[in-house]
Here is the input.
Amino acid sequence: MPEKHDVIEYRLGTLEASVTEIKSAVSSIDKSLQKLTSLEERHQETRDALNRAFTQIEDHEVRIRHVEKNEPVTRLVRNWIIAGITGLIGMVALVLVSKF
Here is the structure.
């Protein structure tokens, strides 16, 4: 039959091994939490960047829709200006030709 002292030493050894395992597990959990925190910060930065990008995209979309809405009028006015300038050049050319 084992002596009481041997039983206590065995139990202390087992307890020490368990504490060592717990320390190792806590250390591993600490490293994992540090990595998770770092990943969460990067994720938040990415989320913020995406929000900024989508805000800019929405702004550009509004501006493009405004330009597209006004494009037919702009095209019509441009054609009138080109026709007016062409007519003016034609009249100037006609006056110059008629003087010679």
